[in-house]
Amino acid sequence: xxxxxxxxxxxxxxxxxxxxxxxxxxxxxxxxxxxxxxxxxxxxxxxxxxxxxxxxxxxxxxxxxxxxxxxxxxxxxxxxxxxxxxxxxxxxxxxxxxxxxxxxxxxxxxxxxxxxxxxxxxxxxxxxxxxxxxxxxxxxxxxxxxxxxxxxxxxxxxxxxxxxxxxxxxxxxxxxxxxxxxxxxxxxxxxxxxxxxxxxxxxxxxxxxxxxxxxxxxxxxxxxxxxxxxxxxxxxxxxxxxxxxxxxxxxxxxxxxxxxxxxxxxxxxxxxxxxxxxxxxxxxxxxxxxxxxxxxxxxxxxxxxxxxxxxxxxxxxxxxxxxxxxxxxxxxxxxxxxxxxxxxxxxxxxxxxxxxxxxxxxxxxxxxxxxxxxxxxxxxxxxxxxxxxxxxxxxxxxxxxxxxxxxxxxxxxxxxxxxxxxxxxxxxxxxxxxxxxxxxxxxxxxxxxxxxxxxxxxxxxxxxxxxxxxxxxxxxxxxxxxxxxxxxxxxxxxxxxxxxxxxxxxxxxxxxxxxxxxxxxxxxxxxxxxxxxxxxxxxxxxxxxxxxxxxxxxxxxxxxxxxxxxxxxxxxxxxxxxxxxxxxxxxxxxxxxxxxxxxxxxxxxxxxxxxxxxxxxxxxxxxxxxxxxxxxxxxxxxxxxxxxxxxxxxxxxxxxxxxxxxxxxxxxxxxxxxxxxxxxxxxxxxxxxxxxxxxxxxxxxxxxxxxxxxxxxxxxxxxxxxxxxxxxxxxxxxxxxxxxxxxxxxxxxxxxxxxxxxx
Length: 759
Description:
Low-confidence stretches: 169-180, 751-759
Strand content: 15-25%
Distance between the termini: 31 Å
Shape: globular
Strand order of the largest sheet: 7-14-13-9-10-11-12-8
Number of strands: 22
């Protein structure tokens, strides 16, 4: 297949959805794009409506079939794909026991079938089906691309189905709001919430701020200094509030605000404007716009969003200059959804409390600090929609869907009941998985599996404990570095690390040292342009070159070990000499702190090919190892997983990757070293099955996957999986490895149960 075919397909689907004003025309564009881009004769989309799968759009079947073809979820291959909630590929569908033929719709001469369930909140809501003239087997790459297309469609289809219920429930003769019964925006924080609508007026416009009276330059300068001090006190209080409610790392967002207030460059510029005769308010506005304009010109979307932080700081300082009362703390006596043109991080932080059920912002982006705070707090959020706030005055109740990007205004009973059902299903599914926490994390034949969690924020730590993990196998330490204007101090890092250790209450944490560079640049640490940043100055290479920064981080981690078991994990280790140097620095800092030798185990990430071949040599210098399958896969296959043109070639189930993992497992067994797998491969049922087959019994995965993978482990027989090891290592393609695993799970009667476990 041409290398850009899949990219063009996803761009087509995304463009159709983004410009969607008519669901029927949008679906027609989608099926046409899939058919032409992927070279298949028939593409059809089915919705699940009132107990039936209904054909809503097709390319290749007769147009008269749309709306007339209806089937039960227990009928046909499409019904099988729907109820199994996993892709179904059948080379000769007419020989399959579930095949159902529909006459007079144009499918008489068709061959192979592929059905992709369209999932929403883990539930099937429709099916994307593909047919070809010839009998053929769809490749793993093709299936993955169709799954991606179905994923893009899920929010649109869910919205269309819910919207249809809205329109059906609105009396046509007395529709005073018309199309205003829902708003459509961009998903910024997943989940959904229901509550009273609170519309907040816009206070972010700096140009609208009036001047404060000053009789002299000296008085203006004095007022500015006083306003700075009061603003700093406000932000310190906010930082403490967010740190207490969420985590120290989330509170670091406001430390960046404090640093800007203390920045001599910023304050001296304001003073210069005041000395030149400008009033203090105008001076703050002028300098703030300099910074805002600079941020807005940056290519990086995260850095562009920092313009909102500058506006937030300026607004706070100006409020004190004009002797305005600050935003009064709001207390929600009932579930509330806040809608505003925009919210500063300060405003958002002041709203975080149990009663806040959703945030809707007409402006702002998915990378704004407000959106980040919502995600950290688990509050659903939608951004980037159009609304007339005056027309919302009579709206009382709303449902905000942060997964689909929808806001339903005074929803009718049908919509309310639908979301109540989704809420119950989600809760019930979670409770069913949690019920198995009382059982050990072991396979049916008694093989114990050590299951740990991956963390990036302090707010991840409680979720890891709730998921039944026995520790944190990978704590990413980058966040406190990424949200600041300069390097965090040793004390600031210690506070984050020690709090995580205390929350885990005796369970071990492996802190990975700073992994920046590549796709994670620091705004205040300019990295020179590199043609291949993933192969350049990054990760441990930066730490060893910036030894003082490295030593500060190591001291912070070592000090945190006073509160519980801690391990240190070095990323991107390439050879024994690099590992020895990093270990020597860590040992030196441990000795300075008076820690006994070996109290804090030192480990290495296996992420690059050189580490594979030198594993035996490195084993003598490390207490444990962790395999980062994400980076290891991209380096083994020479595929940048962030490059959309070649991302379809990235596949951790590739035979070369599995062979490398098999050799590592055997080497670790010989050397009697613990090796954990911490990449995304272990967070998927097929991946976990492959790893168990290869002999792995230690996984560290994302918090959201803990319950499902734990339950999956309890449902499989490790001995039976190990019997497919030889077949896996003899496979010639990713699709073949997947088929081997699928057949093995089917023999264990897991084929039907696999999908529910994977949501």
